[in-house]
Structures are given as structure tokens and as C-alpha cells.
Amino acid sequence: MATGTLHIDLDALVANWRALNALSGPGVETAAVVKADGYGLGAGRVARALSRAGVRRFFVAVAEEGAALRQELGPDPEICVFSGHMPGDGDILHDLTLTPMLNSIEQLTRHFESLPGHRFGVQLDTGMNRLGLEPTEWEAACPIVMAQAPRLLISHLACADDPEDPMNGAQLNAFRDMTDGLNVPRSLSGTGGILLGPEYHFDVTRPGIGMYGGAPFTDATPVVRLSIPVIQTRDVAPGETVGYGASWTAEDASVIATLSAGYADGLIRAMGDDAVLFAEETPCPLAGRVSMDLLTVDISHLTRVPAQLDILCNQQTIDDLAAAAGTIGYEILTSLGTRYNRRYAGSA
Ligand SMILES: *Cc1c(COP(=O)(O)O)cnc(C)c1O
Question: Does ligand 1 come within 6 angstroms of the Cβ of 187?
Fold first, then answer.
């Protein structure tokens, strides 16, 4: 078997959720964001483990994800859909009891006309200019919406990963201005907002990346380990080159291991020279470009050829690999391809 193995530690995931739940504080419900197939780790397995740990509300990006999640979790948890009520969503929202976060006057109209009495929440735009009703729209729509008993009012922070950014306070004030006194549960914060402090928590927090072990939750326990098998090795003489573009040249006699994963598996080409792989604790540098299905790694300094090398592990987290590739941990996780053998541990 040449496919890599993605080890997913569900106990670590649950421990991270519990830590974020503790940070959210007493009286605040900590939900869980499992969009994009649970940030690439398998929404069903992730959500089942979290559900057992006490999560009662999940967020997904689109209704189809919510439908799949409902089949996994059964009737009890609330499943909220960030993209709201799109054309064609009516049957899914109704049949699977999903809660759309309505984003526009158009969506409010569609929802109230096509699914009268069906549960919903509203997303408000406090400055990110991405989704949600703007303050003037909300002012006009608020009485009509309140008459329909929304279950949740949410907004989203644009700069929550930087506690110093003045945008956080501005969005907090805007959210308060739009929602104070309405007596509807409110939610403003994902992982970053939880770390900003209690005034950002309101009634419901909705962490994603921190549960999966990523920044800005620096105290997170790593959730993933990615091991990639060695297909073959070869001895390379000084002056010989390795890989596409012959971009790596051996300075000394070297041993190169060829591993079975590449950019088609989410190991993006841009990580280039800064990424390393690990044989247990020992770092081994990439030698040459990342191919579609293969990596070439300098293992000259190892005393024996390992069966596999790790590219994500305690020594190299999703954020370390993201830094090498000029991206963020979220993109590393959600890019992990479908070829890996996903192996779950814990929370069985
Ligand atoms: C993805 C997302 C979250 C979760 O954010 P993290 O930074 O992953 O914790 C919360 N709210 C909204 C609206 C999102 O799109």
C-alpha cells in the first residue's frame, strides 16, 4: 500500500474543544464548526466525537453539508448553515431540520415565503463585507424578523487573530448596536474571538480551527499526524540532480528517499525548500521540487531507511508547514487530499 496515512486523534480534538469551552466561560454555549468536511478531517467522525463530548450545535457552510451531518448525528443537535437559504435549499432545510443563517433581504424573503414558521437565524455584517445584512438593511428588516422569532443572531470578526487590531473593537460595538436589547441569543466569535476575551463571547461561541489544533489557539494539542511511505531510495553522487527542473544538486554523496505523496495530496509545491519531513525526531529536508504524487527527501544522515516519514507531527504542526508554504493552517488542513488512508484514534 503506497497511500499515506492521516492519523486523526479524536481525543485531542475533544480536548481542544473542552479547552475552548472552558475559555468561553460559564453560561456560554460552545458550538463547533465542521464545514468543509470538518476542516478536511471527516465531518462525520469529528462531529460524532464532539456530540458525545456534549456539543449541541454545529455550523456548516452549505445546506448539503448540513444534510450529510444530520444523517450522522440524528435529530437532536442544531445544525446551522452559514450560507443561509439559497434557491433550491428549501426541501433540504425543511426535511433535515437545518437552521439557515439568513444573509440578505432576498434570503429573508425567500425563507419566510417558502418555509413559513421554519427555524432560522440571521447573520449581520459588522464590517467584514462578506456575508450578512448591513446595518441599514437590518434596521428596516428587524421588526419583521423579530416577529418570526429568530433563534440566533451572528456576525463574524475579520481580524480576530490579531488582538491588537482596532477592527475587533469596532465590530464588537457595531454588533452591540445592532443587537442589544433584542433578547435573541447572539454569537460573534470563532477561535480568535474566544481568545479576545469575555466581552466577545455573547451566548454562543463557534470555534473551528482551534479544535483542529491550529493557530491562533497556540495551546492546542496537535490533532493530525501525516505519515508518508518510502517507495524507494537511491544513492546520488556529488553533482547529480534530483527531480523536476533538476533544481537540487547533491554536494556530497547522498541518499534520496522517494515518498508517495505530492501536491495532488495537498502538499503544496510552494512549501519548497523550507519544509522538512521527520523520521521519528530527526528532520530530513526535501530535496528538489514537490511532484504531483511524489516527494524526494534527503535521508543521507539516517542510519537506516525508514518505512515512512512524517510531514505533519508534533515537531511540525499544520502552522509550521503553512509557514513554509506561505499560507495558513486552515488551508493545509482543508487541502489534504482524498487519497490518504484516514485512521482515527480515540473517542470510539
Ligand atoms: C469558519 C467560520 C468560523 C470558525 O472560525 P475558526 O477561525 O476556524 O475558529 C466561525 N464563524 C464563521 C462565520 C466561519 O465562517
Answer: no
Cell of 30: 460552545
Which of these three, 212, 236, 260, is where a domain ends?
A: 212
Query: Is residue 348 very low, low, confident or very high in pLDDT (cuts 50, 70, 90)?
Result: low
- How far is Cα 298 from Cα 285, in angstroms, rounded to an integer? 6
Q: Are residues 204 and 301 in the same domain?
A: no
Please report how many Cα atoms fall inside a 13 Å half-sphere around the Cα of residue 20, on the Cβ side: 41
Residue 49 DSSP one-character state: H
Distance CA(218)–CA(195), nearest Å, equals 10
| DSSP-based three-state secondary structure for 295 | strand
Domain that holds residue 297: 224-345
Q: Is residue 4 part of a domain?
A: no
CA gyration radius, the chain: 23
**What is the position in ligand 1's atom list of the atom closest to the CA of 194?**
9
Tell whether 219 is covered by a domain.
Answer: no
Amino acid at position 41, single letter: L
Instruction: Select which of 39, 200, 212, 244 is catalytic.
Output: 244
Active site residue 39: no
CA 28 to chain centre: 22
Residue 305 CA to residue 280 CA, distance in Å, equals: 12
246 and 180 housed in the same domain: no
Q: What is the pTM of this model?
A: 0.97
Element (H, E) at 224: strand 224-236
Is residue 135 a contact partner of residue 178, using CB atoms and an 8 Å limit?
A: yes
Give the ligand 1 atom nearest the CA of 211: 9
Q: For cell 499526524, what's the residue?
A: 225
Given the C-alpha cell 431540520, which residue does it identify?
97
Confidence band of 258 (pLDDT split at 50, 70, 90): very high
CB atoms within 10 A of CB 316: 21
d(CA 134, CA 137) in angstroms, rounded, equals: 5
Q: Which three cell numbers stand for residue 132?
A: 450578512
Measured in angstroms, how far is the CA atom of residue 206 from the centroid of ligand 1?
7
Across the chain, mean pLDDT equals 97
* Residues shown for the chain: 348
| Most informative mutation of 157, 206, 318 for ligand 1 (most atoms within 8 A of CB) | 206
